[in-house]
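Form 7-S
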Amino acid sequence: MSRRKEAHAMARNPKAAKPTEADLQKALDALDPGLAEVLRGQFDDLRDEITRMSETLAAMGRSGAAAARAGVAGAQDAAEEKLTEARERLAGVQGEVEAFTRNEPVKALGIAAGIGLFLGLLLSRR
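Output:
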């Protein structure tokens, strides 16, 4: 297969043609020695830069995950605090309702009947 056809095949399916270090060395050996040396230096610099970028991205991913975990933990703590406050308020209201029902049973029964009648009317209109 000609080089042009190989290059075209690589462009269409890059996974099928994974150049190796040996392929790179072979291609560089075919060039002018001065140019080959410059390209080797550039390839080495590129490889080092890719390694640094990979390490930076991995570190960013780790710090982002840690920040997300901290945010979730903070939100969970806040939600638990709100739930505790709501339970305390509900317990207070429940105590007040029970006290009112014990002290004023006729009024409590009238209010419950009124609320039941009101809800019955609302739900029957559907």
